[in-house]
Design goal:
Elements: H1 5-10, H2 20-26, H3 29-70, H4 76-83, H5 90-103, H6 112-137, H7 140-172, H8 177-235
Helix pairs in contact: 3-7, 3-8, 4-5, 5-6, 5-8, 6-8, 7-8
Length: about 240
């Protein structure tokens, strides 16, 4: 005896062409475009996550090592010479920029001239900080965009798929599950892809933004500390390193 299609579907019997790959290949052209767009967005999210994650871990380790060397009591001139061309993280770049400005200034300063020199050193380090932070923040804003837009893009695909299901009902005058299932399935799949792109994007944006802000605060504090050290060196009338 032949089984009823509705009963078979409700009992969970396999239906031909209902795999995920089949859903994607047999979907309406608009739903296909939505799926492709969300898949590309998801891949972009993970690319940014891995690139920023590995970079921030490396920068935190390099920053900790440099701070240890800076406060080890090594003369600033000696530390600057040790760096040489191995300046590959923001704190070292800020230190090198401040040292170059100091070395390019007058050999002996006092009073207002000293204040201006310390101010110039602080400005140079601040500009370096801002440039490095722009590099760290690059592509992070796209995570927020994807996190907020992807669910709505998926919802558009869902609405379109459900419209196709109603059109199938109208054309066949048949309300069996076999008629409406493909459209509903592809609609729900578009929703799932939207969430698959949005959820990691939101989590990653919050995590990466917090880490970048924390590193920025650490670098800003270093700039202030370096200014204090330079001012102390000038007050003691030491030669420019």
């Amino acid at each position: 005896m032949e089984s009823d299609p509705i009963s078979s579907a409700m009992l969970g019997e396999p239906t031909a062409g209902m795999s995920i790959l089949a859903l994607a290949l047999e979907a309406d052209i608009v739903v296909k475009f939505v799926m492709l767009l969300l898949l590309v967005a998801s891949l972009w999210v993970w690319a940014v996550v891995f690139e920023k994650g590995f970079r921030l871990v490396r920068l935190r380790r390099q920053t900790a090592l440099f701070e240890q060397a800076f406060w080890s009591g090594t003369p600033l001139g000696e530390l600057y010479r040790r760096l040489g061309k191995r300046i590959d993280h923001p704190m070292a770049l800020m230190f090198a920029a401040g040292m170059e400005e100091w070395r390019g200034g007058p050999k002996a300063v006092s009073g207002d001239a000293q204040d201006r020199l310390v101010g110039r050193i602080g400005q140079v380090m601040q500009l370096t900080l801002e440039r490095e932070m722009r590099g760290l923040e690059r592509n992070v804003s796209t995570l927020a965009t994807i996190g907020s837009a992807a669910p709505f893009v998926g919802l558009f695909g869902t609405v379109w798929g459900i419209m196709n299901s109603f059109q199938s009902i109208a054309m066949t005058k048949n309300t069996t599950l076999a008629v409406v299932a493909p459209g509903i399935a592809e609609a729900l799949f578009a929703t799932a892809l939207g969430l698959l792109a949005a959820i990691p994007a939101v989590i990653a944006y919050n995590k990466i933004s917090t880490s970048v802000d924390g590193l920025g605060d650490r670098l800003a504090s270093f700039a202030d500390e370096f200014g204090v050290v330079v001012s102390r060196e000038l007050d003691s009338s030491r030669v420019v390193p």
